[in-house]
Design goal:
Elements lengths: L1 E3 L8 H9 L1 E6 L7 E11 L2 H4 L12 E12 L2 H6 L16 H9 L6 H13 L4
Antiparallel strand pairs: 1-4, 2-3, 3-4
Length: 132
């Protein structure tokens, strides 16, 4: 299985984990369905042009791709999705009752010199160039 790195994603967390361990596990979730599909196996990050040229969903090849040598595929127990009410809007917290992504980031960073406006500006800038 080959998964291109989304153009503009600019996040290396997962790729660094794959490089460090040589393994990956994916959990496929379909909105409205409670059973998920788990896929595990050996993994590597590829920057081979001949592979990346085949992955041009947005008109140009990605900078890299995750290559997964599948060792296990199985449905995953739906209990947690059923218990959570993830697909039941009446059980969701209202948007006003949840912190914004900037508020969560600020709380996690614990940097008193930062303000919400700084983080919101950074978020807006990162989205502005997401698909270039």
């Amino acid at each position: 299985m080959v998964i291109p790195d989304a153009t503009g994603n600019k996040r290396l967390d997962t790729l660094q984990n794959v490089i460090a361990t040589g393994r990956a596990g994916l959990l496929f979730v379909i909105p409205g369905r409670t059973t998920t599909l788990r896929v595990n196996g050996r993994a590597c990050v590829s920057t081979r042009p001949e592979l990346l040229s085949q992955l041009t969903a947005v008109g140009k090849p990605p900078a890299s791709a995750l290559v997964l040598g599948i060792e296990e595929v199985y449905p995953h127990c739906p209990k947690s999705l059923l218990r959570s009410g993830a697909w039941k809007p009446e059980q969701w917290l209202s948007a006003d009752a949840q912190p914004t992504s900037a508020e969560v980031t600020l709380a996690q960073l614990r940097m008193p010199e930062l303000a919400i406006a700084d983080i919101e500006r950074t978020e807006a800038e990162s989205l502005k160039y997401r698909y270039e």
